[in-house]
Design a protein that fits this description.
With 396 residues, the chain is of the alpha+beta class. The chain has 10 helices and 20 strands. The strands form 4 sheets. It has a 7-stranded mixed beta sheet with strand order 3-2-1-4-7-6-8, with helices on both faces. The chain has a 6-stranded antiparallel beta sheet with strand order 12-13-20-15-18-17, with no helix packed on it. The chain has a 5-stranded antiparallel beta sheet with strand order 11-10-14-19-16, with no helix packed on it. Strand 17 and strand 18 form a beta hairpin. The protein is globular, with a radius of gyration of 26 Å.
Length: 396
Amino acid sequence: MKICVYTCITGSYDNLPEIKIKEKGVDYICFTNNKDIKSKDFKIIYIDDKIDNHILGRKIKMLGHEYLEKNYDICVWMDASVTFDKSVKEFVKKYLKDNPIAFFKHYCRNNVYDEAVACIRFRKDSKEKILKILDFLKKEKYDDNGLYETTVYIKKINDEKVKETMKLWYYMIENYTIRDQLSINYCTKKTGINVSIIDGIVWDNPYFHTVSHNYKKDLKKCRIYYGNHELVGHNNNDFNIDLNEEIDYIIKDNIYSVKTKVLGDTNIIKVQITDVPLLKHSDLLIKSNYKNIDFVNLISYNNSDIFYNDFGVLNVYGNFKKGDSFEFSIRLEKLSEKETIELVNYSCYNTIHLVEDIHKISRDNELLRNDMLSVLNSKSWKITKPLRFITEKLKK
């Protein structure tokens, strides 16, 4: 049985990781249209397909390549941000089992509708395209069957059901939205393929770890949401998806400024300040009447406040009326490579200790529970029940 771990890099979005565990019978392949991509660990296969980079990446992710079909029995897709730390053979054997394909469950969402809200909120694709696929699913009378995570998945590449599912999945990408997690569960249900579930979550498991994408874009715009309302009648009520606007920053010497008019009466304005990760902020100035503020996805480290992912949010609370002036400015600076490494090490250290603390609390709670059960089941507790009843009566 020959196994291939494969990925795809289009444009200059990512760099290839170093392979830590090298196994006989497991090859690593990277498909790319970037002639500058080099690796001593990956076999590089250049592709010359004149389609959008994002679509091309999805095409390889789903349909694979004739080279894979001719040379391998099992393929493990991994985003280029993933690095395996343990045996790939062990990973495949443990989780693929007797089925032709295996996915992780999504780490925090369990249905396509919540995923759609997140995609609109995080600007992963246009609202129109995402609502288009939701309309399609409604017309199909799709009965929601969970949500898979597609950062890493395993498949028997020459299995006919796998081929049928992958073709349908890519069709959904071409005709609806590039957000592949919005369509994969529909596709597996439509084709009836048997799916194995990989234990744990993509972002925290013993077999591999992820690193930040190699972001090349600059921050140019922010998006402002007014109020708390639902998108499609589900449980996400953090943002009014309809009442929002995207505004170009006025940028001077790392000061990012915005001036606008409030679009509707509200007691909260949510500003997605950044869609680029690892920016430290300072010198926030709000030139509007407000009561309070807080931040989302912010970490304090080394005397700096840092937006650690690509969804840094400023919440501004107050009594805002439609047409009120809303103006703010903030200093934003990218972390240096040295600062990024230090922050990652700091975060990993604290996460490990937090997990250890949680496990300790869980163990202590279990011991306490066992002690209480032991007392409640003891003869002395049962014998003294009448006395406790009389004591409670006397207290009253």
